[in-house]
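Structure in, sequence out. Go:
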């Protein structure tokens, strides 16, 4: 395993492969994917990979063999795979916070650290007792519901996995991130005598989560018996703060500083998902992710799927001018995947300084957005097809239907494949069937890149592999871009400024950061006083 991996001595934009890509880019301006497919029957096979059961078709990306050759050369020059190996080996790759990023250790099974195995065993025992009706409320009743309170990485992962694979049995698992009316409305549907509240917060200081926790504790206090004591649990890296809130040690599950929030699904943050899925399926999720870990660590670069996808993102952003990537889930259960992915990629790759602390001379991560297919076809696909921003698109679908199917699965797949084909081929005016000027309005430029990721079916193992694929793609992208994927100072500053402004909204004198903010707060105060 490599010793500490030092940053390459040349700037990324000065590396030979980068220069070759810049020269190669100039050949691209008149090439259309439609013509490349027509001239190269073997294209779709050469630019597809099957990995851990997932089928990835990136043949509709604007590349050819030469592009891929230069991109792989760049990965070699930048030591991207060595950086990933160092991360897997526990190096402090999160160099600003002097921490490792060892979320892979959470799914290492028997090879996992003792504290990980012990925590997983506690999670399984608690989850099985809860699902078996052996965990009782303050007045002795079995628990029918679980409410998980958290935000960002303390919610998006477990909520997305629960939405994908939750069983129908008790207890039902709910997620809340927003204090106030949304939480009140949800609590009104639950029974305070039969609900377990899990407070998920690594820092145990996040304002939204702490306010939700305060409201939930008041709500529990309505129930007879000592509900607050019996029906509260916490997942945190700050046990003293949780204890101060009255949470018993046997209801506390640890988080570690070597697991970033957006990479923490596999840790005790996954407890509500384990309750929703059952311990056996949560273990299958871990197995699927572990299989992708082995692939990412051992595959040859030209077959390393997370590396290939990271390289394509770099090509689209730094050479084809893309500023966003849109991800659409054409499987109803994966509707929350874009939300989870948005935090993973934008908190990891939303950086502008390299490992030496110097401003980047290249673009870092693109904005990640998306939604559910086919609903999104009735919202943003017009822009994707005929707007004059050619942005890359990613389609995630499942070959087999999730459960008994009424034919709608085939409909979704037909739409998914039709969209990516039309984005690529376009529709020339002469193909629209319209005449004259109308033909111009009905034409589609095409040449819009997309990748399609096909799971065999929506099951825990396939989903685990998919999510780990995205984690490694993100880490490899950061290695290529020479940035730290694992800190998030930008959001930390925002939280602090919000804390300073809060008293001003209730009229207390606070130093304003700028005239605009002062004017906005004055406007709010004025409305409150009328
Ligand atoms: O969004 C900023 C962030 O710190 C995320 O990285 C984290 O997942 C989220 O807030 C919640 O933080 P905590 O788990 O400490 O409440």
């Amino acid at each position: 395993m490599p010793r500490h991996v030092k940053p390459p001595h040349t700037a990324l934009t000065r590396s030979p492969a980068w220069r070759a890509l810049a020269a190669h880019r100039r050949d691209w301006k008149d090439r259309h994917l439609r013509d490349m497919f027509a001239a190269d029957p073997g294209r779709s096979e050469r630019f597809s990979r099957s990995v851990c059961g997932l089928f990835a078709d990136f043949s509709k990306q604007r590349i050819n063999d030469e592009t891929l050759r230069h991109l792989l050369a760049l990965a070699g020059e930048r030591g991207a795979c060595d950086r990933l190996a160092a991360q897997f080996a526990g190096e402090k790759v999160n160099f600003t916070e002097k921490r490792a990023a060892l979320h892979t250790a959470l799914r290492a099974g028997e090879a996992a650290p003792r504290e990980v195995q012990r925590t997983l065993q506690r999670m399984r025992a608690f989850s099985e007792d809860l699902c078996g009706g052996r965990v009782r409320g303050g007045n002795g009743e079995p628990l029918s519901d679980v409410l998980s309170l958290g935000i960002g990485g303390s919610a998006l992962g477990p909520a997305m996995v629960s939405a994908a694979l939750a069983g129908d049995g008790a207890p039902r698992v709910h997620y809340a991130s927003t204090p106030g009316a949304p939480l009140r409305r949800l609590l009104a549907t639950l029974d305070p005598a039969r609900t377990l509240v899990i407070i998920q917060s690594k820092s145990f200081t996040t304002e939204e989560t702490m306010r939700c926790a305060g409201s939930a504790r008041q709500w529990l206090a309505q129930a007879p018996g000592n509900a607050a004591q019996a029906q509260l649990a916490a997942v945190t890296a700050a046990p003293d703060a949780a204890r101060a809130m009255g949470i018993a040690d046997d209801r506390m599950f640890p988080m570690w500083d070597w697991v970033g929030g957006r990479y923490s699904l596999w840790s005790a943050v996954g407890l509500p998902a384990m309750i929703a899925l059952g311990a056996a399926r949560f273990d299958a999720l871990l197995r699927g992710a572990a299989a992708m870990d082995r692939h990412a660590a051992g595959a040859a670069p030209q077959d390393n799927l997370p590396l290939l996808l990271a390289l394509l993102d770099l090509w689209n952003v730094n050479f084809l001018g893309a500023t966003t990537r849109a991800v659409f889930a054409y499987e109803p259960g994966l509707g929350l995947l874009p939300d989870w992915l948005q935090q993973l990629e934008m908190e990891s790759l939303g950086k502008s300084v390299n490992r030496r602390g110097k401003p980047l001379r290249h673009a870092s991560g693109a904005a990640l957005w998306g939604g559910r297919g086919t609903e999104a076809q009735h919202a943003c696909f017009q822009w994707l097809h005929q707007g004059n921003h050619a942005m890359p698109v990613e389609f995630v679908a499942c070959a087999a239907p999730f459960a008994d199917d009424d034919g709608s699965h085939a409909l979704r797949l037909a739409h998914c494949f039709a969209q990516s084909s039309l984005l690529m081929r376009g529709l020339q005016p002469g193909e629209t069937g319209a005449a004259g000027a109308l033909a111009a309005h009905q034409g589609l430029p095409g040449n819009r890149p997309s990748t399609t990721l096909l799971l065999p079916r929506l099951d825990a193992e396939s989903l685990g592999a998919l999510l780990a694929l995205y984690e490694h793609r993100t880490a490899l992208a950061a290695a290529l871009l020479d940035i730290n994927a694992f800190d998030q100072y930008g959001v930390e500053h925002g939280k602090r400024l919000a804390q300073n402004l809060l008293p001003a909204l209730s009229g207390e004198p606070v130093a304003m950061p700028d005239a605009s903010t002062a004017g906005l707060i004055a406007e709010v105060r004025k409305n409150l006083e009328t």
